[in-house]
Amino acid sequence: MNWTIFQHHVYPIRHKLYRFALRITGSVPEAEDVVQEVLERVWKSSEEQANNVSNWEAWCMTLTRNRSLDKVRATAQRRVVSLDGAVARESDSGDAARTTEMRDLADQARRLMQELPEKQRLVMHLRDVEELSYEEIAQVLDITLDQVKIGLHRARKTIREKMLAVDARIPANV
Amino acid sequence: MKNTPDIRELLDRYWEGETSLEEERRIKAFFAATPDDDLPEEFRQEARWFRILQSEQAVEAPGVHRMALSARPTRWYGIAAAIVALLCAAGVWWRLSTPGPVEQIVQSRPIEKIESPKLHDLPVVTTPDNTPETGQSSIAETKSTKPFRLKKRAPNPVEDDTCEDPEKALAEIKAALALVSSKINKSKETLDKGLQEVDHVDILLKRKNG
Fold first, then answer.
1. CATH of domain A1-94
2. CA-to-CA dists, residue B27 to A8, A45, A94, A122, A149, angstroms
3. N or C: which end of chain A has fewer CB within 10 A?
4. ipTM strictly over 0.90?
5. How far is CA A56 from CA A12, A46, A52, A61, in A?
6. Chain B: nearest CA to A131, how far in angstroms?
7. Domain ranges (residues) in chain A
8. pTM for this one?
9. Per-residue pLDDT of chain B (210 residues; tens, 9 = 90+)
10. CATH number of the A110-174 domain
């Protein structure tokens, strides 16, 4: 692996890889392990392999997906996602209200997205959080372009309905 | 602020899964730049969703980049050592294959232009064992090929080949490699510090941009 390529194409997307691994494994330690293993795997790839990669982000995401699914299968249980690491860094600023808001938003995102079927959840994450193109999502998840579009449409529709339902319940509870 | 009919139309297409990445970024930028209090009522619920996405995008990997950096130096050591070894080998080859200073002078002088020396200009030839030789026999030997006075050259530590002794050459190569290695270590520490600074600035900017 060429250090310049690693520095410009792989190192900057480490947070994306981490979020994607976190979305699949639902575990901070496992997501960290996945990212470390993926970065090591990419770093140790041969020059020939590196020359064949046209889209580094999609390739790294694919490696992350595969490694994360291995972890999930190995543990055989999905754990609840914890975003404590991210929120802890926000709390460094001393803005308690902001930290609480971030935690609430993260909790909402977790609940809404975790309730989606796995494929829809991953399609939505790659599109709405990581901003990948349909083609890249299809490559990463190894599905067709139509499956990506249908999955995203259904995921967004479900999310909107859930949000409407939550809003409808709030006045009755108050 | 972007006009709201435009955003409304974009949002309707977003929920149908018909927006492009660029259009979705425009929606996110709109909600990121507009405080809740300034939003029309019809956008409040959707604003929450896009703030959720924004919070998701702020999640960062804790500390994995240190691993990536720690994996780097071994490869550089190998490359640096290979370059130094190649340079040393090339230097030894060049010294062995290049004629010495006297041979270079002789070869650079066209023989046909050299006049035969007069008798009183007979050269004094000094042999490597420092025994002077004069007379006709020397004239005959030096007349055509060595028309100059040759003196035994004093040892020159700068010009002399230091790689004639293999053990000495090996020791010098090791010393050179050690020097390069120390320089690379120093550079690596500097680069690590620089990257830490960049990370720090990145965090500060994100906090500032909220």
1. 1.10.1740.10
2. 28, 38, 30, 21, 19
3. C
4. no
5. 11, 14, 10, 8
6. 7
7. 1-94, 110-174
8. 0.53
9. 556 778 899 999 999 999 999 999 999 999 998 888 888 888 888 888 898 888 888 888 886 555 545 544 445 556 677 787 788 788 777 777 766 555 555 455 554 444 544 445 544 444 444 444 444 444 444 444 443 344 444 555 554 555 667 777 778 778 888 887 777 777 777 777 777 777 777 777 777 776
10. 1.10.10.10
